[in-house]
Amino acid sequence: MGERGVSPGTGTAQRPEAVGWGGLPAHIARRIIADAHARGVAPGEPLADESRLIEQYGVSRGTLREALRLLSFLGAITIKAGPGGGARLSNPGPAVVGSALGMVVQFRGATLRTVFEARSALEPGIASLAALHRTDDDLAVLDRSMTALRAAEELPGYAYAEQSGLFHNAVAEASHNDVLATVVPALVAMTSTVPWRYPRGGRKELTGRIAVLIAAIRDRDAPGAATATAAMFQWVMDDLDRNQRAALESRILWPDVDAGLAARAR
Predict the structure, then answer these.
(1) Domain named HTH gntR-type: which ranges (predicted)?
(2) Does any domain span residue 186?
(3) pLDDT score at 9
(4) Which residue range is the domain that position 33 belongs to?
């Protein structure tokens, strides 16, 4: 006997054609999240137990568990075994978006150049929003980021690049735009998958440019923040075009993006 898709929260059978993209487990996963939202379930709170979910959605235990595994993979729920365990709603992090986007852009043939172009198109506007919406707490994070960047200027390895990425993520958070604060970490992670160097003498130069950007954000100077960010990206890309063109044309690969995001999440 075949399984049935169901209307959210009703237990009423739907026609199979209502299942849509991804098959029945994905359809049930979408219904679980829609129902949780409708009921006001908050991250950290439990969903119904397994037997109740099976009855509610009219599916087998195997199909339900596939749906829950999908939601767990996407970071939408956590699952704990044993007494007091079960599925609880969770907050998916930017790594979920970054991993999926990394897979898509690999198959589209994206390169480091296209990632930098995307960032140089987006991040001046993000900096402008940060200048308009930043709070004192945001400024404190940006100031700590500046201190960390100055401390890393002379350090070997990737410490400076890591701090630079954290700074750009902090600006995105200061924009108080949830979409942009989710997308920027994915683009930052892609930028770090290809080996490239800052321009000659570039760490101190970049730190100075970041200081100008932070000052504009502090002064709520939205045009100044956008201009400083655009100039910073242009400076980096011009040098890469002159001296590291092979790096700019290197492909972005999903395994590298995924590994970088996983390392940042630890």
Answers:
(1) 22-92
(2) yes
(3) 44
(4) 16-89
